[in-house]
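Team,

Forwarding the record for the chain on the shared tracking sheet. I've put the sequence and predicted structure together so nobody has to dig through attachments.
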Amino acid sequence: MKVLVVRRTIATWKARYRTCPLHNSVFHGRECNGDLTKSTGIDESGDVTFSMSGTCHVVRSGRFCPDVFCPGIWMIVADSIRERLDQLGRITFSRVIFDKLVDVELPALGDASWFERTTYPTEPEPDLEWIDLPDVPSFHEAIGDYFVVGGPVVERIRNQLSDIQEVTCDFGSFPRKPKESTVMSKQLLEEFPITWNGCYFFREDAFEVIAPHLDLDYFSVACVTI
């Protein structure tokens, strides 16, 4: 089975690439404390179950909002993408609440001027200083609905899965964190179009939905066979 693995592209402080930590933080925003809870288990009949409840709270730029972004470990998609993914079945969604939408512009790709302004590491998280900007109410009226995408967390049930196997995800050259090893279950992916284990694992039919909306300056994709 061909599977596509998706994660945020890492940002590096040490060198100048097309993107820097400021690009990443403005593009993805910041996940705040919310009441989002997720549960993965196996019921009495041996079937895998997954549930997600509550809401995800986000602070981000309201000047623009990509169709797919990842302000923490969980992927967020626009409502139009949610509708298409929902047709595949067995994918769980939770609504996003934008606590603040601020007026901050995404730097041009390759703009390294941020490195000349920052005092990192003596100044903590200077790439997030934009979070303190004021909320812009008009942005909330225009942004539309967004949802967290959820699927079973493999690590929580790995000892109960009979076909668990180690996989190595090759995301390409630095700064894309070249390789990452994790575990996955083919049986689980046959049942659930999307699963999670440190990265998002997409079955091909689910990946086809989000692929046109992934900005590959901010996401890394690996292809594995399970």
